[in-house]
UniProtKB/TrEMBL annotation:
Protein name: Tyr recombinase domain-containing protein
Keyword Signal attributed: no
Chain intervals for the UniProt region annotation (Disordered): 1-31
Record key words, sorted: DNA recombination
Length: 447
């Protein structure tokens, strides 16, 4: 009968010790100090709040806080393990402690062996918007297909998604280490050699090749590499396309040169479209008179117009993602332009400016054009009027940039076109036909 009494006394002593410890008389190096810090995490299931069977503990040390599962349902054992974790932190720091007590919390930076590994990481971590990723990857894969092919000229892929996907799977398996500078330079030479012909054909080949190089460089660009470095990832050297140079030289290789009469073209569009084809006229005016991009025109909504103030708000909507954040702006409408669109708005039967009976459709980052038939018809009409370009509607936007440059200067044109910098405007858009003279010649008195 003595033994039960002794056990009972011993139990009372332990309880008293716990009460004393909980008052704060012990430090963190004693397991008793952790008895109140360990806890059972709560979770909700079927609307009821439950507790886990095992204890955990939250520990903050050296500006970092982690939750450690203690893997025991015994409070005293959990407190002892928490004390060991704290002692390890003090003695060894976070890395060694996590290796011993919470291995899954140690971050291991991923490595990329293939193109597919790299692209999957960019997509999963939102390094690009879906639209930007689709645009860059499409051109990058075209370049990659040409690089790895036996022949330099890439074969045109049919639009059937199954065949395109099958071909892209092979490209995804290409190793990043195989995209060496030597291989890329060899591809550039081969690409141009197989497209030699007339000077204009060679110039177009150079521009096409540069577009592939530009998209490929963007996939491994400086901004991307800085973001990767922030999460402990360093791409293997040499970085693909990092030092690849463009084949065209100088601003003149890309600068827009106007070969159209915008006033005459506007007069012809009004005469031919106003009564019979109003949708084509709206597209024409939005491109030439306001400098909108094709996708901005296609998904422009009447709600973006502020007719009393004669303003058009170019902004992201539930149906359209702009090319960049800098593309958002308010455009001022000339009185006649505002009057025309306001009259069209009063006759409109839908929410979109271009009425075609279709809603926007998005597939894997690619935005299909709602009004594709109208866009195609206008392109054919523009070509018949002498706008001989691969993208006639975009040529109207370039002509808009040229008109603003001549009227207000390069900086104003850059703002009106909503470019990221005046350099883009100067390189691709600003054809300024004004005489580049000082006007001081009249002061000369010769003879």
């Amino acid at each position: 009968m003595i033994q039960p009494f002794e056990n009972s006394c011993h139990h009372v002593e332990d309880t008293k010790s716990v009460q004393e410890v909980s008052s704060g008389s012990r430090g963190k190096t004693h397991s008793d100090s952790w008895l109140k810090k360990v806890y059972r995490p709560k979770y909700r299931t079927e609307g009821r709040l439950q507790e886990t069977a095992n204890y955990s503990v939250k520990i903050q040390f050296s500006r970092r806080r982690e939750t450690f599962p203690l893997n025991t349902a015994n409070r005293a054992a959990a407190a002892r393990k928490a004390k060991r974790i704290w002692a390890s932190l003090v003695a060894n720091g976070w890395e060694e402690t996590l290796k011993e007590f919470k291995l899954q919390a140690i971050y291991v930076a991923p490595t990329f062996e293939t193109v597919g590994d790299y692209l999957d990481f960019l997509e999963a971590n939102h390094f690009y918007t879906p639209e930007a990723l689709f645009r860059n990857v499409t051109k990058f894969f075209t370049a990659l297909r040409s690089i790895v092919a036996d022949e330099g000229k890439p074969k045109r892929m049919k639009k059937r998604r199954s065949k395109l996907k099958q071909a892209n799977q092979a490209l995804r398996a290409v190793k990043l280490s195989d995209l060496s500078p030597q291989r890329v330079e060899s591809w550039k030479g081969r690409y141009l050699a197989e497209r030699s012909g007339t000077p204009i054909e060679e110039l177009r080949a150079k521009h096409t090749l540069d577009s592939y190089i530009r998209a490929s460089k963007a996939m491994f660009g400086v901004k991307i590499r800085k973001r990767l470095a922030n999460v402990g990832i360093t791409l293997p050297e040499p970085v693909p396309f990092a030092n690849t140079s463009f084949v065209s030289r100088g601003r003149s290789a890309f600068r827009y040169r106007s070969r159209i009469d915008p006033a005459l073209l506007t007069k012809q569009a009004v005469e031919e479209f106003q009564d019979e084809k109003p949708e084509l006229l709206k597209i024409f005016l939005l491109a030439l008179h306001l400098g909108l991009r094709r996708n901005e025109i296609d998904k422009l909504m009447w709600s973006q117009f502020d007719f009393p103030r004669r303003i058009l708000h170019i902004e992201t909507t539930q149906y359209a993602q702009l090319k960049s954040e800098g593309s958002e702006d308010d455009l001022t409408l000339e009185p006649e332009l505002a009057q025309y669109f306001e009259s069209e708005f009063k006759r409109a039967g839908g929410i979109f400016v271009i009425s075609c009976g279709r809603m926007p459709k998005r597939t894997g980052g690619w935005d299909a054009y709602r009004a594709q038939p109208f866009l195609t018809e206008l392109c054919d009409w523009l070509r018949s009027k002498g706008v001989d370009a691969q993208k006639p509607i975009h040529t109207l936007r370039k002509e808009f940039g040229k008109l603003i440059t001549e009227k207000l200067g390069l900086f104003a044109a850059s703002l009106a076109l909503r470019h990221s910098s005046p350099t883009v405007t100067a390189t691709y858009y600003a054809d300024d036909r004004r005489e580049k003279t000082t006007g001081l010649g009249k002061l000369l008195r010769l003879g």
